[in-house]
């Protein structure tokens, strides 16, 4: 089976969040099932620099008015097709915006171009390559199914995965004539969305199947509270919607071999974690005394509930807890957490920024991770935490609901508990959960049981890859028999 994946980021080359992890890990997980994935990505300078050698395999004379080259490269087991359009991708700043964080004004063009080329490849534009299915990720690739529908690739099935419905790719209607779509595509059953052009909306209308990254989130986005305006469109595609929880790359995230740790360990040598705790305390200027060490590895945003965490930091410290924060995000939330760390020297430490190696040490050295998200399509940090014996304290939402078993009496006595869940996302409810954490932490037997049970949870891609394969197979079979 040949799958063309389309994504705007991919680990280990370019990453801003969980999408990159999924795009980077899924091809490896699908391989044993006989699925060959080629992944189409934009040729950002950072990505091209990391790839080094590439082969030009074809050119496109006109992609939304630009000449484009398609480069092929292999990197750590990934087979990449890199879309090289210097006018769109060769620039300073991040993947989606400039160094001030403002979105690039031509993002509509940058990601329409990516999707346009995906549809061309689906139509067999590259000599000797005919994908059986296109798997598009998030709004940046969501126009691929739209171009496929209105072009030569309408017989090729497509899957659109929603990693976060809050990001929809909504643009001014004035861009429509430049997209190269027939005029009737500007309609409510395609890309038109309240007199704007909605990329995710168009993709949801056109893709053969829609997935999201956990069963609970698939239910939630049908509701007004979580659907962010697209709940009606999704409800109209209910029979084509499913939720498949993300896995993690268990080779990259393995405490037994992870090169970023002060000391490697496994479930049978948990004592060795203390060297990582000590290293983490040094890095964050924290006292390495008794009492649980909590951590945060996250975008510091309202979605992630980081304002709620800021409200309970004083209480967490008053109970003898410590907190190490790694992240960046909305300035007012960064400030609130920075104030908390200034108020509590030795008890609360903060590193503002993005630091992949440090994120590994955080999972290996902390006792618990706090994830108070208001919504969470899947969440990866709780999965890394399980694997590293760092107990997750999570909001009861989306993928957090599906992947953590709350340490209630029944779950504790039957030894299946892996973490702590709370709802609603309020300071009162989080602080109640923290009190439960302190009580459990005070009993080493209970705590070790929580850690080891989490470390034995299956957080790999095995089950989820099998689900994607059966979805792909069904869609391909349906198309061939229709
Ligand atoms: P989202 O994609 O919504 O940001 P996820 O939990 O799905 O959230 O994925 C976040 C990913 O980004 C994880 O791999 C996490 O470890 C990583 N991450 C988040 N913030 C940082 C940071 N400041 N430094 C390093 N890694 C980070």
Question: What order do the helices and strands come in, and which of them pair?
Answer:
Blueprint: E1 2-6, H1 18-30, E2 36-42, H2 45-51, E3 55-63, E4 66-75, E5 78-84, H3 86-89, H4 107-122, E6 133-137, H5 138-141, H6 143-150, E7 158-162, E8 170-171, E9 192-193, E10 196-198, H7 199-206, E11 209-212, H8 215-220, H9 224-227, H10 231-235, E12 241-243, H11 273-284, E13 293-300, H12 306-318, E14 322-329, H13 331-343, E15 348-352, H14 356-365, E16 368-371, H15 381-388, E17 391-395, H16 398-403, H17 409-413, E18 420-422, H18 427-441, H19 444-456, H20 462-481
Parallel strand pairs: 1-2, 1-6, 2-5, 6-7, 7-11, 11-12, 13-14, 13-16, 14-15, 16-17, 17-18
Antiparallel strand pairs: 3-4, 4-5, 8-10, 9-10
In short:
The chain folds into two domains: 2-247 and 462-481, Rossmann fold; 270-455, Rossmann fold (3-Layer(aba) Sandwich), CATH 3.40.50. It has 20 helices and 18 strands. It has helices spanning 18-30, 45-51, 86-89, 107-122, 138-141, 143-150, 199-206, 215-220, 224-227, 231-235, 273-284, 306-318, 331-343, 356-365, 381-388, 398-403, 409-413, 427-441, 444-456, 462-481; strands at residues 2-6, 36-42, 55-63, 66-75, 78-84, 133-137, 158-162, 170-171, 192-193, 196-198, 209-212, 241-243, 293-300, 322-329, 348-352, 368-371, 391-395, 420-422.
Describe the 3D structure.
This protein has 482 residues and is of the alpha/beta class. Helix 12 runs parallel beside helix 13. The chain folds into two domains: 2-247 and 462-481, Glycogen Phosphorylase B (Rossmann fold, 3-Layer(aba) Sandwich), CATH 3.40.50; 270-455, Rossmann fold. The protein contains 20 helices and 18 strands. The model has no long low-confidence stretch (mean pLDDT 97). The chain has helices spanning 18-30, 45-51, 86-89, 107-122, 138-141, 143-150, 199-206, 215-220, 224-227, 231-235, 273-284, 306-318, 331-343, 356-365, 381-388, 398-403, 409-413, 427-441, 444-456, 462-481; strands at residues 2-6, 36-42, 55-63, 66-75, 78-84, 133-137, 158-162, 170-171, 192-193, 196-198, 209-212, 241-243, 293-300, 322-329, 348-352, 368-371, 391-395, 420-422. The protein is globular, with a radius of gyration of 23 Å. Strand 3 (55-63) and strand 4 form a beta hairpin. Strands 3-4-5-2-1-6-7-11-12 form a nine-stranded mixed sheet, with helices on both faces. Strands 15-14-13-16-17-18 form a six-stranded parallel sheet, sandwiched between helices. The structure holds adenosine-5'-diphosphate. The site of adenosine-5'-diphosphate has 17 residues, from helix 1, strand 13, strand 14 and helix 14. The site of adenosine-5'-diphosphate (ADP) has 17 residues, from helix 1, strand 13, strand 14 and helix 14.
């Amino acid at each position: 089976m040949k799958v063309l994946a389309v994504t705007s980021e991919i680990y280990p080359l370019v990453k801003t969040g969980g999408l990159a992890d999924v795009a980077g890990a899924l091809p490896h997980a699908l391989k044993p099932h006989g699925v060959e994935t080629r992944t189409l990505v934009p040729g950002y300078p950072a990505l091209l620099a990391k790839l080094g050698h590439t082969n030009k395999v074809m050119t496109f004379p006109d992609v939304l008015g630009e000449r484009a080259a398609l480069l092929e490269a292999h990197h750590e087991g990934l087979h990449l097709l890199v879309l090289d359009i210097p006018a769109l991708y060769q620039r300073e700043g991040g993947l989606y915006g400039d160094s001030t964080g403002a979105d690039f004004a031509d993002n509509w063009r940058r990601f329409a171009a990516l999707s346009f080329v995906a549809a061309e490849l689906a139509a067999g534009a590259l000599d000797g390559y005919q994908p059986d299915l296109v798997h598009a990720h998030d709004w940046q690739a969501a126009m691929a199914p739209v171009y496929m529908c209105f072009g030569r690739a309408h017989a090729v099935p497509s899957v659109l995965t929603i990693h976060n419905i809050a990001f929809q790719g909504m643009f001014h209607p004035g861009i429509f004539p430049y997209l190269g779509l027939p005029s009737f595509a500007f309609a409510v059953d395609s890309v038109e969305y309240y007199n704007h052009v909605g990329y995710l909306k168009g993709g949801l209308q056109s893709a053969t199947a829609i997935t999201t990254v956990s069963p609970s989130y698939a239910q939630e986005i049908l509701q007004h509270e979580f659907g962010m305006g697209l709940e009606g469109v999704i409800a109209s595609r209910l029979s084509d919607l499913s939720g498949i929880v993300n896995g993690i790359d268990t080779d990259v995230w393995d405490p037994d071999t992870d090169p970023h740790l002060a000391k490697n360990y496994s479930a049978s040598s948990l004592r060795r974690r203390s060297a990582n705790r000590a290293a983490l305390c040094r890095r964050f200027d924290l006292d390495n005394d008794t009492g649980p060490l909590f951590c945060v590895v996250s975008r510091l945003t309202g979605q992630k509930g980081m304002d709620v965490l800021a409200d309970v930091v004083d209480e967490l410290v008053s109970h003898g807890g410590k907190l190490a924060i790694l992240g960046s995000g909305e300035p007012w939330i960064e400030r609130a957490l920075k104030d908390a760390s200034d108020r509590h020297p030795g008890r609360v430490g903060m590193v503002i920024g993005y630091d992949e190696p440090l994120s590994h040490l955080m999972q290996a050295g902390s006792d618990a991770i706090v994830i108070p998200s208001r919504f969470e399509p899947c969440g990866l940090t709780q999965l890394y935490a399980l694997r590293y014996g760092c107990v997750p304290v999570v909001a009861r939402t989306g993928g957090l609901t599906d992947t953590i078993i709350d340490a209630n009496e029944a779950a504790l006595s039957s030894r299946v508990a892996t973490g702590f869940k709370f709802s609603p996302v309020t300071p009162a409810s989080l602080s109640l959960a923290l009190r439960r954490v302190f009580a459990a932490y005070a009993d080493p037997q209970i705590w070790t049981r929580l850690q080891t049970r989490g470390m034995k949870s299956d957080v790999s891609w095995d089950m989820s890859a099998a689900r994607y394969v059966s979805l792909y197979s069904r869609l391909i079979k349906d198309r061939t028999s229709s």
